[in-house]
Amino acid sequence: MSNQRVTTAYFREAKKTGRKITMLTAYDYPMARMVDEAGIDAILVGDSLGNAVLGYDSTIPVTMDDMVHHIKAVTRGVKRAMVVGDLPFLSYHISREEALRNAGRILQEGGAQAVKLEGGREVAETIRAMVSCGIPVMGHLGLTPQSIHQMGGYRVQGKDEAQAKKLLEDARAIQEAGVFAIVLECVPVPLARLLTETLEVCTIGIGAGPYCNGQVLVTHDLLGMFMGKSPRFAKRYANLHEEIARALQAYREEVQSGAFPGPEHGFDMPGEVLSKLY
Ligand code: KIV
User: Fold this and answer.
1) Distances (CA, A) of 30 to 26, 40, 145, 182
2) Is 47 in the pocket of ligand 1 (CB under 6 A)?
3) pLDDT at position 56 over 80
4) 48 alpha carbon to ligand 1 midpoint, in Å?
C-alpha cells in the first residue's frame, strides 16, 4: 500500500478497478492515528460525534465549532487517509454564502480534504457551488440522521417504489452537481446494488449491503464502545466497553486495597536530603 495521501482520484480509480474503499469515523487524535495506521482509506469526522462522544441523543445539537475543533484534532493524527469533515445540521441550508463559508472552514481551519453533507436534489445547487470553489463534496442519502424528526425514526429508506425512485433521482442529481462519492445509509441491498451499478461515482455503504464500492462504520460501534445499543448493521469487532469497565474497576479496587501504587510506580530520593527535612 502506498503512503500517498488518498485523494478523490483514488476514489475514481477504485470505481474503475473494483477495489473496495474503507472508511471509518474518528473524532480525536489518538483514534485518528490508529485508524490511519491501520491503512483505512478515509476518515470521516462525522456529526455522529454528537452521539458517540458528546453525549447527545442525536446529531442535531452538533455545531460548526464542535466539528472544526474535532476535525483539527483528527487531521493532526493523519498522514495517508483522506479526512472528510461533516457539515452539521443547518450549516448549509440558510444561505449559499453561509454554506460556502462553513465548508471552507472545514478545509481551511480543520485541515480536512473534503466535506460531507446530507440530502438530494434540494442541496444540489449548494454542492455545485462548493465544488466550483474547489471543495470536494461527499453526499449522503438514505437514512439522513439530521432529518430524523422528519423521517420519524431510524429506519431503512427506499423500500417502496416512490421512495426508491426518489433516492435514484436524488443520487443522479447530486452526482451531476459534482459529488465524488455518496454514502448510502440504511438502504435495501438490491437498491444499493442498483445505485452502485448505475452511478459513475463511488457508493459507500453503511447498512446498505456488500455491493457498494466501499463501506463505512462508526468506529465506536465496531469497537464496542457505545453505552447503548448499536445498530444491527454495525458488526462489532471488539468489546472495549467491557474491557475498559474491567480496567477501571480493577484500578478502584487496587487503590482502595493499597495494591496500587507499588514500589515500581514511585521515585526515591537521597536519604541525607530526607533526613534534613525531618
Ligand atoms: O456522522 C456519521 O458518522 C455518518 C456516518 C454514519 C456515515 O454520517
Assistant:
1) 9, 15, 26, 27
2) yes
3) yes
4) 6
